[in-house]
Design brief:
Length: 295
């Protein structure tokens, strides 16, 4: 990889799919427009800024529902809980299912393993095996942490699956979602505990692929800066940062993606839920290799 430049049908790898309690709706009813809400690091069960992570999540859902009821799907990029336990996950599920957004996709973060093996996540949400979602010529690939530890680890068979899945969908617009970022891209991903592993294997897979966008969390904003966004080669990297105030972020933030049929770009807009406003200085236009086409 070159040095980072700052830049303002569902399938699975042997996974049982679908969040329990969440209807498996189609990706969207509108054939020309998609909006996807991407959030991370809720830390349900951890209180900071006067609210538990589940309360920050509830406020964010109300904010988005009021102004963006037409969101096609929502995506949670890990650290849903602070302690990985059943009660915290059920609090998340209760708010998620009451949000009014029918379709949700999740990945597990390192905090989901604080119960030892992410058993509660696997029981209540889905397998931690990788999976993909196809929406017209847009392909989402979801990578959970697969082992305990602050760093994100993919098993060798999951790396094989990722390589094959990217190859299978060559000729489509590819988005990868994980909890940790990719080494030497966004803020602090030079650190071993801040990027996904095995780093060399993943870098080699990316070099052979045409990934338009890679989204991650894990590195909480304090404050959010241009270094949370990067473009390396043909891939844009966005660190979604934190929906809660956990670890002194002082702000509840997330990302709204907008897709228009026929366009050759995705628009990413950063939302601050405390003030119910966007941060235009961090709006990103992500170039695509192929015009968006939805069925």
């Amino acid at each position: 990889m070159k040095n980072r430049r700052d830049f303002i049908k569902m399938t699975a790898g042997a996974a049982a799919l679908g969040a329990l309690g969440t209807p498996q709706a189609s990706a969207a009813a509108d054939s020309k427009l998609r909006k996807a809400w991407v959030l991370s690091d809720l830390h349900c069960g951890y209180t900071e800024g006067g609210k538990d992570g589940s309360e920050w999540f509830e406020l964010a859902c109300k904010d988005m529902k009021q102004d963006y009821a037409d969101i096609a799907y929502a995506i949670t990029l890990g650290d849903i809980t602070h302690g990985g336990n059943e009660t915290q996950l059920k609090n998340y599920i209760k708010t998620r299912d009451a949000s009014g957004f029918l379709t949700w996709y999740e990945v597990a973060g390192n905090h989901e393993y604080h119960d030892g093996k992410a058993d509660s996540y696997k029981q209540l949400i889905r397998s931690t095996n990788p999976y993909s979602v196809v929406d017209g010529n847009l392909v989402w690939i979801f990578l959970s942490d697969e082992m305990p530890g602050v760093q994100g680890d993919l098993k060798p068979e999951s790396c094989d699956w990722l390589e094959n899945e990217l190859l299978k969908h060559k000729g489509k617009n590819l988005i990868v979602c994980s909890h940790q970022g990719v080494k030497n891209t966004t803020l602090n991903t030079h650190r071993g505990d801040r990027h996904i592993h095995p780093a060399d294997r993943i870098s080699a897979i990316i070099a052979k692929s045409n990934i338009a966008l890679w989204m991650s969390g894990h590195e909480h904003q304090s404050p959010y800066t241009a270094k949370h966004i990067a473009r390396v080669e043909n891939t844009t990297y966005i660190n979604v940062a934190s929906l809660s105030h956990a670890y002194k972020t002082g702000s509840s933030q997330s990302c709204l993606l907008e897709f228009v049929s026929g366009a050759r770009e995705i628009i990413a807009r950063r939302r601050t839920h405390d003030t119910r406003t966007f941060m235009p200085e961090f709006e990103v236009k992500i170039p695509l290799s192929y015009p968006l086409a939805f069925e």
